């Protein structure tokens, strides 16, 4: 009987902590600050928010959409601040800060793509006789050719090698 009450009390404590974690996340705190305030590890703070999100998803998609929108707004605010910092760094010709801002912009973009599901892996049909793979190779070749310039003809390379050997 005591064990059951303890177990029930533990569940309630965890549920309360998870709700607090979500409220702190809604207010814009990063997971590190949530962990500090709740006295848990960074991993636990993330898992608490993720558990509530999963629970909300099972109860209603509209609540998850609200949470997703909240995260997008938080990322938008961060994006704005980084762009402002980068503009100031450019004016001051602080190249190191500009590079840090670019790095942060890339990370924000990664977070947005992940949140929106744009980074989901794509399946490649390798049973099609290699046609899809060949198409991807052609696309990559075309892209790299336009970036680094056209590749020299193999005959030209051999002629240049012969000139160096002589």
Would you spell out the secondary-structure blueprint of this structure?
Blueprint: H1 2-26, H2 31-38, H3 42-59, H4 61-91, H5 95-116, H6 131-148, H7 154-165
Helix pairs in contact: 1-2, 1-3, 2-3, 3-4, 4-5
Molecular structure report:
By secondary structure, the chain is mainly α. It has seven helices and no strands. It has helices at residues 2-26, 31-38, 42-59, 61-91, 95-116, 131-148, 154-165. The radius of gyration is 26 Å and the shape is extended. The model is unreliable at 146-152 (pLDDT under 50).
Task: Give the tags.
mainly alpha; single chain
What is this structure, in a nutshell?
The protein contains seven helices and no strands.
Give the H and E element order: HHHHHHH
* Spatial shape: extended
CA radius of gyration: 26 Å
Could you say which structural class the secondary elements and strand pairing correspond to? mainly alpha
Termini, distance in Å?
94 Å
Counting DSSP H or I runs of 4 or more residues, the number of helices is 7
Give the helix level as a range of percent. over 70%
Give the averaged pLDDT, no decimals.
78
Biggest β-sheet: count, sense, barrel? Answer: none
Poorly predicted regions: 146-152
Strand percentage, roughly?
A: under 5%
Task: Compute the number of strand runs.
Answer: 0
């Amino acid at each position: 009987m005591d064990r059951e009450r303890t177990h029930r009390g533990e569940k309630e404590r965890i549920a309360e902590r998870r709700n607090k974690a979500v409220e702190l996340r809604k207010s814009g705190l990063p997971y590190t600050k949530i962990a500090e305030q709740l006295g848990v590890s960074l991993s636990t703070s993330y898992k608490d928010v993720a558990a509530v999100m999963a629970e909300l998803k099972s109860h209603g998609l509209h609540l998850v959409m609200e949470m997703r929108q909240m995260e997008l707004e938080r990322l938008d605010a961060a994006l704005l601040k980084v762009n402002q910092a980068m503009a100031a760094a450019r004016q001051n010709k602080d190249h190191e800060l500009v590079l840090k801002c670019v790095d942060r912009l890339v990370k924000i973009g990664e977070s947005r793509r992940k949140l929106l599901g744009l980074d989901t892996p794509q399946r490649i049909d390798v049973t099609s006789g290699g046609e899809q793979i060949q198409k991807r190779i052609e696309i990559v070749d075309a892209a790299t050719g336009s970036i680094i310039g056209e590749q020299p003809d193999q005959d030209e390379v051999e002629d240049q090698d012969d000139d160096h050997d002589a």
